[in-house]
Give the backbone structure.
Amino acid sequence: MDNNIEAQPLGGNNIGENEINVMTGEQLLNMNLEDVPFLIDPIFHKAGLVCLGGSSDTGKSTLLRQLAIAISTGKEEFLGFKLNTTHKSTIFVSTEDLARETRSSLKKQTENFKPEDLKDIVFLFESENLISKLTKLLEKKPADAVIIDCFSDVFNGEIRDVQSVRRFLQRFQNLALKFDCLLLFLHHTGKRTEELIPSKNNLLGSQGLEAKMRMVMELRTDQNDPLKKHLCIVKGNYIPSSLKQESYVLHFEEDQLLFTNTGEHVPFEFLVKKGDESELREKYKKIIKMKDEGETYAVIAKKFGVTKSTICKWVIKGNENGWNIPIGDILDSDQEEE
C-alpha cells in the first residue's frame, strides 16, 4: 500500500474547465496508515487544531514553552508521553509576553542547554497578518508545531459569534493541513470555572471554538496545593474515553519553571469546589445500585466508559463523604425522576 497517494483531479465536460482534487474510497483504504498519527502519543495529533485552556496564572504559557523546547531539542518524550517529531522545530507566537519577558522565562527553563540548542524554536512577537507570516516561516522551515499564545489576541471578531470563530479558525486549519503540522492555541476559561468539573464548555466564547478543535485540554491548579497542576483532556477525537475522565497530575518546579508528570491521576469529579459534588454523588448512587444488582466493577466501568480504577476511586470518595446510600433511597430517587 502506498502512503503517498495523491488526490487526483476530477475533470471533464460535466464540470467545465475547473478541476476538483478528490480521493476515492479505494485510495483512502490503500493508504499505508493503520492509525491516526500523533505528535504526542496519545494526546496531540500530528496535524490539525488543538487547544489548551485554563484560568490565569495556572502556567499555561510555561507548559507550552516546555513543549516547544522538548520538540526543538530532539527530546523523545514530553511529560512521560512519547514524542513523534519529524522536523524537530516549533514556531511560538507570543502576544502576551514580549522578547525580554520570554527570554527571562526561557533562560530558567533551559539551564541545561546551550543557546545554540534552541536554534529551532522561532519566536514571533507580532501577530499582524499572522497567516501570511506563518506561511512564509513554514515554507522556509517546516515545523512540527505552531503554538499561538493566545487565541484572544489574534482573533479580532466577536468571540461569541459561532460562524465568525469558525471562519477564522478555518484559515488555520488549512495551514495545518498544507504543512502537516499541529496548530496549538492557548485560550482562557471563564471566571470561576475552576470550581466546576473540567469541561470543554469552560472555554471562553462560543461553542464554535471547541467544536473546531480536534482536541481540548484544560490546565488547572489544585485547590489545596498551588504547585500541583491537573492536566485534563476534556475533548479528544480518536482518544479513548477512559483518558478523558481523570487528570494527569503534574508537579510545578517554580525555580526552573518546569513541569513533571507525577504519574498520579485524579477523577475530574474530585476537582470541583468542595460542597459542589452533586454529579459525583449521582454517579456513586448508580454504581451502588449496579453493585446491588450483581454487576462487577469491570462491567460497571465499561458501561460508564471509564477504567475500573476510576470506578473504585469514585466509590472510595463517596464512602469518605459518608454517602453509604441504602438501596431503598436509590429506588426512591429513581421513582422521583420518573
About this structure: Confidence is low (pLDDT under 50) at residues 10-17, 327-338.
